Amino acid sequence: MPNVVLLPTGKVLAVRVSADAFLDSIANPNTARNYGIGVGKTVERLGEGRPLVSVADDEVGEALELLWGTAAVNTWNARRASVLSWLGWCRERGHEVPAVPAWAKRLTVPDSETPARSRMAVDRLIARREVHLREKTLYRMLYETAGRSEEILSLNIEDLDLAGRRCLVKAKGARAKARRRGQAREDFVLETVYWDAGTARLLPRLLKGRTRGPVFVAHRRPGPGKVVGPRDVWPDTGLARLSYGQARAVLDAHTAVRGPGTGWDLHEYRHSSLTHLGEAGASLLMLMAKSRHRKPENVRRYFKPSPKAIAELTGLLAPGDSRR
């Protein structure tokens, strides 16, 4: 439940006082930390001790522009949203406050720059002899499920339905289920991802009869100073779960051609999977179901058809006799 924080009444509300009260009202520590960046820096720019009522709308916009006008689109939108929430929170409590001006608008997120690899490139990488079975399974599973890297790397053997070729994952942004009276529960809303024959052939070889612990484990035990939860350790050997950083480094070593750091990214399997499904004729609704996106514009960022696919599509518009 959110903290109950009261703003002072009967006197002029200062900029810093209102901001501190707003941040104290946020129960989620991650949200409070992220909002604290946007609100905190904006407060410093506006003047901490001045009355909030004396701040003009354009001053808020100018502060945002000076602080994050040249930042990435997502950063601008996040900082703007935090200031918008702060001022809206104060307004709901009866205080006269400025507004974020219309010209300091939310920006449209550009298409992702993550490339989509060809189906042949994906297959050839997985078929290479020097690629370990663990990586072969991970790459194939990422591609066939179109799942997020963090979701697949966090899987435990107990989560898998090998016969049904599917499993439940805690999706990005998943919130805890709530009881009837609002008390938070420890379990989260889960979503199902599906794989096909390629993953189905590799998983039993990787698991080798294991029945518990992480699906993808590192080749070494965690260092003495690293704290690892019981779910993230293979109990029979003490080996820890393979981390995103480790998996990313191995993939880079397999694919970099212009030096370290120039290889593929794990996220490219998700882009490639959705692109290939789209090229094969999957509808937008089916792509949304597969990727578990809730907004069509988010799927659009992942779908990157090849020039060949666009050329073949354009050929459908040619006169009938030109295709004889």
Describe this structure in words.
The protein is mainly alpha-helical and 324 residues long. The chain is 45% helix and 6% strand. The chain is built from 13 helices and 5 strands. It has helices at residues 15-24, 29-46, 57-68, 73-92, 119-127, 133-145, 149-153, 197-207, 244-255, 268-279, 284-291, 296-302, 307-314, and strands at 160-161, 166-170, 176-178, 184-188, 190-194. The strands form 2 sheets. A 3-stranded antiparallel sheet has the order 1-2-5, with no helix packed on it. Strands 3-4 form a two-stranded antiparallel ribbon. A hairpin with a 5-residue loop joins β3 (176-178) and β4. α2 packs across α3, α2 packs across α4 (73-92) and α5 (119-127) packs antiparallel against α6. The longest helix has 20 residues, at 73-92. The chain is globular.
